[in-house]
Amino acid sequence: MEQTFVMIKPDGVQRGLVGEIICRFEKKGFTLKGLKLQSVERAFAEKHYADLSSKPFFNGLVEYIISGPVVAMVWEGKNVVTTGRKIIGATNPSDSAPGTIRGDFAVEIGRNVIHGSDAVESARKEIALWFPEGVAEWQSSLHSWIYE
Ligand code: DAT
Ligand code: MG
């Protein structure tokens, strides 16, 4: 089954949005496979965002990610990468639809509360980076009520 990496950024943690965000993925029917609160080092944040290292906002982005603890998660389910991105909403909260996490809880692109992998391949890389110890193996007892 497909997995994605989701991170609640330091603003989401500081603003007390952890429960609300987990709730949205849980209620959708996705399965939580990994979860930890963690402060990350600069080099680790740079590795996570390596693809953006040439962007003018890269340094600010890294400063933001290391400014406080984040909540790193792995969620599993059918099409969870694409659907997870829809639950999260557009990168710039000015464009994120109401009902999405960024649409409901963020105003600025540099404080957009949450990260979600953008493709199955990047999800695989990000899960390996953030959860080198591996994730839990379990199946929800609700599985047959969510999948036909
Ligand atoms: P996303 O987080 O939606 O996958 P991304 O991977 O393009 O977006 O960029 C990673 C983060 O970098 C994004 O969540 C916020 C920040 N960012 C992106 N574009 C930006 C810009 N033009 N100005 C400032 N920050 C930006
Ligand atoms: Mg991205």
UniProtKB/TrEMBL annotation:
Gene Ontology MF terms in the entry: ATP binding; nucleoside diphosphate kinase activity
Keyword Repeat: no
Name of one Pfam family that matches: NDK
Enzyme class: transferase
Cofactor(s) needed for function: Mg(2+)
Catalytic activity: a 2'-deoxyribonucleoside 5'-diphosphate + ATP = a 2'-deoxyribonucleoside 5'-triphosphate + ADP; a ribonucleoside 5'-diphosphate + ATP = a ribonucleoside 5'-triphosphate + ADP
Keyword flag ATP-binding: yes
InterPro entries noted in UniProt: NDK-like_dom (IPR034907), NDK-like_dom_sf (IPR036850), Nucleoside_diP_kinase (IPR001564), Nucleoside_diP_kinase_AS (IPR023005)
Keyword terms, alphabetized: ATP-binding, Kinase, Nucleotide-binding, Transferase
NCBIfam families on file: PRK00668.1
Function: Major role in the synthesis of nucleoside triphosphates other than ATP. The ATP gamma phosphate is transferred to the NDP beta phosphate via a ping-pong mechanism, using a phosphorylated active-site intermediate.
Protein name: Nucleoside diphosphate kinase
Species of provenance: Camellia sinensis (Tea plant)
